[in-house]
Write a structure and sequence with these properties.
There is one protein chain. With 240 residues, the chain is of the alpha+beta class. The strands form 2 sheets. Strands 5, 6, 7, 8, 9, 10, 11 and 12 form an 8-stranded mixed beta sheet that branches. A 4-stranded antiparallel beta sheet has the order 2-1-3-4. Strand 1 and strand 2 form a beta hairpin. It is globular, with a radius of gyration of 18 Å. It starts with a helix and ends with a helix.
Length: 240
Amino acid sequence: DDGLFRGDGVFEVLRCYRGRPFALTAHLARLEASAGAIDLELDLSLVEADAQALLGSVGRADCLMRIVVTRAGRRVLSIETLPAHSPSVSLATVAYSPTLILDGVKSLSYAANMQATRIAKKAGADEALLVTADGLVLEAPTSTLFWVSREGSLRTTETAAGVLDSITRRYVIAGCDVETGRFGVDDVFGAREAFLASTTREIQAVDSIDNRAIPTGPAPRTREAAEVVTAAVERETGHE
């Protein structure tokens, strides 16, 4: 199976709140789009049936569901414990070049992303911030970076630059006034505040980048984004 031997496949990770999945439809739609982008045959109805069957065993747990579809057609679904995240995170920049033919694809070929995290940790940070060779900001290996510029604009990198169309990113952009584009790393170094957004982190404040301190309080735009995500979760899962 080339899913194992060559990392040829697609995956999604979604979060369950007291047993109820958040944004399941959006995650399945992105799984289907990823599969289509790499010519991977996928019967989405079977994946959805697998997911619903597995959810029946979750009860009222807070957990993650991972969905993997390999090149050989295997569907692998698992329930996982939520990772622990601290209130804030430090980042270290790591040079990275997006693989253009995999733009927008949540593929199993994540080895470079994971190595970037290890490089950042060796530099004394918690996580990596991927930056192109010419200094354009991309994203963290498994999350989206948002920051508030010196001028007060909440910004994030546009997906056309090669970053993933994160589900959590979509909710933040839909609920907040966000400027998307291509920005240099110096813009981030001067940020008034910054945060990561992802399924597992939800919204996590960034306290430094390359040992340059980023204010974490009062951080009104970070709080705004957190409130937007929380409201979306409550709306879609029925939990308060």
